[in-house]
Specification:
single chain, 273 residues, alpha/beta, Rossmann fold, 2 domains, 8-stranded mixed sheet, 4-stranded antiparallel sheet, 27% helix, binds S-adenosylmethionine
Length: 273
C-alpha cells in the first residue's frame, strides 16, 4: 500500500517560504528612511514598490505612520493575489485605504509621484540591454517627486560568477524546519546572462526545487550608475554594510566610494532624482 503521508514540501507555500527567507520589510523601510533623511533632512511619506510581488513592503510601509501611502506595481496576478490574502488582509482598514496596487508593467507613468521608488531584489536585472534599462530608469524617474530617491540593490563578488555555486541558509529549525538555497545556475561571461534559482529543502528531506527562477543580466555597479546618470538622475550613492571586528554584518549601511572586494556581497544603490 502506498505511503500516503504528505511531505513537508507538498504542504509548503512557496511565497511564505520566500518571504521568510528573502524579505525583511521592516529593515528595508528603516533603510529608505535613513537614505531619504540623509539626502533631504526629512522623512518620506509616499512609496512606490516596483516589481512588488506580494507587496509585503507596501503593507509594512503604511503600518508605520498614518501619513504614509504606498503604490505596488507588478505584472503577475499570482503573487498579487497571494499578497492580498496574506499581507493586505492583515492590515487595519485605515492602513488598507493607503495601499494601491496596480497590475501593470513597471514601465508605465502613474500619478501621484512618490518620495521613494523601490525596485528591489535585483528585479530590474531582467532588463538585459542598455536601451531597455535606460528606458525603465527614465520612466521610473518620471514617477518620482522633485525631492525623491530610487532604492535598488546590487550583488557581486567572484563567487557570484561561479556556476553551480549554492548559498544555503537555515530559515527555520526543528522537525518542520527548512533551508533556503540560492543557486547560481549559469553565467555567460560573453553576455553576462545569468540564471539563478531559489529552492527550499525541508527537514524530512523533501524539496521545493527551483520554486523561483530568474534569468537576468548580471549588471555591475559602474554600468548601472552610468545609466542612472544618463536617465537624468542627479546623483547616485552606493551604501555598503558595516562589518563588526569579526567580519560579521551589522545591518548598518554607510555611503561608500570604495569597498573590500568580498567573494560575495550585496549593497544598496540609491539614485537621487
Ligand atoms: C524577483 S521578483 C521580486 C518580488 C519582490 N519585489 C521582492 O523583492 O521580493 C520579480 C517580480 O517582478 C515582476 N515583474 C517582472 N517583470 C515586470 C514588469 N515588466 N513590470 C512589472 N512587474 C514585473 C514579477 O511578476 C515578479 O513578481
Amino acid at each position: 500500500m502506498a505511503n500516503k503521508k504528505k511531505t513537508l514540501a507538498s504542504k509548503a507555500d512557496k511565497y511564505k517560504c520566500y518571504l521568510a527567507s528573502v524579505q525583511s520589510p521592516e529593515h528595508e523601510i528603516d533603510f529608505f528612511n535613513q537614505a531619504f533623511k540623509e539626502e533631504f533632512g526629512r522623512k518620506p511619506k509616499t512609496l512606490r514598490e516596483d516589481f512588488c510581488g506580494t507587496y509585503a513592503v507596501c503593507c509594512e510601509w503604511v503600518k508605520g505612520n498614518r501619513k504614509r501611502t504606498a503604490i505596488g506595481v507588478d505584472l503577475d496576478p499570482e503573487p498579487l493575489a497571494w499578497g492580498e490574502e496574506h499581507n493586505y488582509s492583515k492590515l487595519k482598514k485605515h492602513e488598507q485605504e493607503r495601499v494601491n496596487v496596480l497590475q501593470q508593467d513597471v514601465r508605465k507613468a502613474n500619478r501621484p509621484r512618490v518620495d521613494v521608488l523601490a525596485a528591489q531584489n535585483f528585479s530590474f536585472w531582467l532588463f538585459k540591454t542598455r536601451d531597455e534599462l535606460l528606458d525603465y530608469f527614465r520612466i521610473a524617474r518620471s514617477n518620482m517627486a522633485d525631492e525623491s530617491i530610487m532604492v535598488m540593490d546590487m550583488m557581486g563578488g567572484g563567487e557570484c560568477y561561479a556556476e553551480g555555486n549554492v548559498d544555503k541558509r537555515v530559515i527555520k529549525k526543528g522537525k518542520k524546519g527548512f533551508t533556503y538555497h540560492w543557486e547560481q545556475g549559469t553565467f555567460n561571461p560573453v553576455t553576462h546572462d545569468a540564471s539563478f534559482y531559489i529552492s527550499f529543502k525541508f527537514n524530512d528531506g523533501s524539496k521545493l526545487k527551483r520554486a523561483f527562477e530568474y534569468h537576468w543580466r548580471f549588471w555591475t555597479l559602474a554600468e548601472v550608475r552610468e545609466l542612472l546618470a544618463e536617465a537624468g538622475f542627479s546623483n547616485s550613492h552606493v551604501y555598503w554594510e558595516i562589518e563588526d571586528e569579526d567580519g560579521n554584518d551589522t545591518g548598518d549601511w554607510v555611503k561608500a566610494d570604495d569597498a573590500v572586494s568580498n567573494p560575495s556581497w550585496v549593497c544598496y544603490l540609491v539614485a537621487v532624482r
